[in-house]
Amino acid sequence: MKEVKKQGGLNAEIQSRIGHQLRAMYDDVVRQGVPDRFAELIRKLDGPEAAAQAGGNTDKNNGGS
After folding, report:
1. What pLDDT, in 10s, does the model give residues 3-33?
2. Mean pLDDT, all residues of the chain
3. Residue 48: how many CB atoms within 10 A of its CB?
């Protein structure tokens, strides 16, 4: 069976190399984690329900009202 190439397409080797590079870059970003200030902002935006589920409700944890 003949291999039909599309004009302007990337061959399998190039696609594989791009995939490996993208995974390496993504893994590096994931390893860096979320900065504390962003995590705090996300908790605030999620609202009090999410904070209570995550144990972020400091009033109850610290013996407050």
Report:
1. 655 567 889 999 999 999 999 999 998 898 8
2. 78
3. 11
Find out whether 43 and 54 touch, Cβ atoms under 8 Å: yes
Tokens of 9: 């397409």
Helices and strands, counts by H and E, the chain? 4, 0
What is the amino acid identity at position 51? A
pLDDT at residue 33 in the model: 86
Give CA–CA dist 30/19, Å, rounded: 16
Measured between its terminal Cα atoms, the distance across the chain in Å is 76
Give 37-45's long-range contacts (Cβ < 8 A, gap of 24+).
Answer: none
Q: Is the pTM of this model over 0.85?
A: no
